[in-house]
Write a structure and sequence with these properties.
By secondary structure, the protein is mainly β. The two termini are about 30 Å apart.
Length: about 180
């Protein structure tokens, strides 16, 4: 997996794989790739603030980060969503499907972006680092208000009941001492 900074991301290289039936021929999953042979999509987003800390829903762990509504992370999310949606709508069976995302407005200037933490059974597999320190921090350092540099991936997109979606997966995060001015 090659890591790309969001400012260097080439949206035209986002690709979806073949449909895989996941539930009774009405729901489908698709691999998401960056380029023809470059593998899964992996992107470093700009420094962000953790809005919610960790929370659990149905045995899965998530967090929300605060992003500028007109910033690079927001553009990345919606541009990738548009590419995935356009790619899937070229197939007749998904022509009426629409994208529903995981962003909610926090204020006129900022939004909260929900990110899923990948797991192996009940254990979170996200790698957590601390800026300028050799020792890795514990999850108690990943709290509301913490500043992070998130590295996210998109492994799959899905269509369920004509709704297109995907999860941003927090692959790595660097906890920063503070945001730059």
């Amino acid at each position: 997996m090659a890591l790309t900074k969001v400012k260097n991301f080439n949206y035209s290289r986002v690709r979806t794989g073949k449909a895989r039936n996941i539930i009774n021929s009405k729901s489908f999953s698709f691999d998401v790739h960056y380029g023809e042979d470059e593998g899964p999509l992996l992107v470093q987003l700009p420094r962000s603030q953790v809005f919610s800390g960790l929370f659990e829903s149905d045995g899965k762990f998530y967090c929300e980060i605060l992003i500028p509504s007109d910033g690079a992370a927001s553009r990345f999310y919606f541009e990738v969503a548009a590419r995935i949606e356009a790619s899937l709508k070229r197939q007749e069976r998904f022509a009426r499907s629409t994208f529903v995302g995981h962003v909610r407005v926090s204020s006129p200037e900022s939004s909260c972006l929900r990110i899923k933490l990948p797991q192996n059974k009940a254990n979170i597999t996200t790698s957590l680092y601390s800026e300028g320190k050799d020792q890795r921090p514990g999850w108690d350092a990943f709290h509301k208000g913490a500043h992070i540099i998130p590295v996210v991936g998109i492994d799959h997109a899905y269509v369920v009941n004509n709704t297109i979606g995907f999860n941003l997966l927090l692959k790595e995060a660097v906890i920063c001492s503070k945001m730059p001015p």
